[in-house]
Amino acid sequence: MLADIDSAEITEWMAYEQISGPLGPERIDVLASILAATTANTARGKGQRAKEPADFMPKWDQGAAAKGGDWEQMLTTVKSLTRRLRGNDLTEGSSRDA
Questions:
Q1: Are the CB atoms for 52 and 37 separated by under 8 Å?
Q2: Which of 9, 18, 32, 37 has the most CB atoms around it within 10 Å of its CB?
Q3: Is the Cβ–Cβ distance between 22 and 30 less than 8 Å?
Q4: Is 78 exposed, middle or buried (0-12, 13-18, 19+ CB in 10 A)?
């Protein structure tokens, strides 16, 4: 994947995924939450409230507001991830290709 797209496009996809949830076939996170609820309900004790899929669903796009993040911190994080994934930093003023 890194050979076909640059760090700017990876950054865009990462931002999109943070807002909308994971990329993949038909929102696999929804399927996983349904399976988790079913499993939990088969093991619940008598008189316990049944779990709903929403109880297991991740909450997307919560990080920036909760952490008080700003765009500069997000950019630093993305650059760090790009370096770890051996991508190229094509932003202006970058000291080296990551």
A1: yes
A2: 37
A3: no
A4: buried
Helical (H) or strand (E) element with 46:
none
What are the structure tokens assigned to 53, written together? 């899929």
The one-character DSSP state at 25 is T
The reply to whether the predicted model has a pTM over 0.90 is: no
Neighbours of 10 (CB within 10 A): 18
DSSP 8-state secondary structure symbol assigned to residue 5: S
Cβ-contact 88, 96 below 8 angstroms: no
Residue 64 confidence (pLDDT):
55
DSSP-derived secondary structure for 57-89: ----S-HHHHHT--HHHHHHHHHHHHHHTT---
